[in-house]
Amino acid sequence: MEFNDNYPKYEVMSNHDEEYGKKARRKLWNVFWLMLFVTIAELVVGFIAPSKGWTGTFGLKFFFISFTLIKAGAIVWWFMHLEHEVKFFKYVILLPYSVFMLYAIFIILTEGTYAGGSGRFAPLDPIFKKQQAELKLRHGHGASHGSHNNAGHEGETGHH
Amino acid sequence: MGHAIEYNAREAWSGGQSPFRVSYGKMMMWFFLISDALTFGGLLVSYGFIRHKYADVWPKAENVFTHFPFIEQHIPLAYVGLMTFILIMSSVTMVLAVEAGHRMDKKGVIIWMFWTIVGGLTFVGSQAWEWYHFIVGTEEGALRNVWNDELGKYVPQIVHGANMVVNEYGLPQFANYFFFITGFHGFHVFSGVVINLIIFINVIKGTYEKRGHYEMVEKVGLYWHFVDLVWVFVFTFFYLL
Hints:
The complex is a heterodimer. Chain A contains five helices and no strands. Chain A is an all-alpha fold. The longest helix of chain A has 35 residues, at 18-52. The longest helix of chain B has 34 residues, at 172-205.
């Protein structure tokens, strides 16, 4: 078969007139308001979470991750114009990446415990460990109340 | 004339034309972004792994990033929220530049690309400012075992701020991942600004007006949106969770 290279030029495929542009711009600004709303909601929840005792709960993680995925989807779909690409190209972009990342997350969650066995990681600084233990005693849970207090001055030296 | 182009999938695959209806350059930009996204995905997955490994002693971001320029009080997450807003805003101006390009509106492209570059530079500057405060740390510091070369052993010592070896705020691994992932992202923002600047100069010179289309603006726009996309995830996993 003769190769004639007559696929549509970019200006034919993508350029549009003023009327279509008006609609496109309105849509883009709507996406902007969605993104702004999602970001502010995330920040407000992140700000009040410690006082409400939500820190580390499944609900909070689910909220943050799902709102992140909404924002990510909005960027890819509307800002990067993936909605205007042909169907097969959408699959080429989205499928291999999603499958690979889901697998990576799955394997790190299931097989991650294997690598966490003793001796595979450098041990914690004993002074830091002691500070964390004291914080835990005082507040009921560690790390969440900052760790720059000088607890454990008499800490032992060397950790190997 | 809108985006609806007659397209017969069966016919398109029989040869002689582009079945994806995209130019070589744009497709390669997408493929590059996928490979780049795999790098960032790998970094974030490994970050999640280490974070779970040390879940009980991992520092909380709201105790680390509490500064805001010109304000003495500690406001957790406010500045990084502003940075996120600036980057999203520059993504909006970029997509408006692409839209102006589709109408062959040279003036519109110049205005919107200008604001995109301003937003990108503001973001990079903000990140440098945040790194500075993280590296310098607090006045009171924290006690840690620090390796002493002369004595050949670990010695207890007050440390201020964070670097690749010690971290005032908690585990050194937190600082390692913070520097590596936000640094890698910041470098992407910086190169994005440089690429945007080159295309911006070409737009002013009228290169794309002569060419008959602004596809190059859309290509750099893809890269710029990708940078914003990565930040959305970094923001969640480093600052919010």
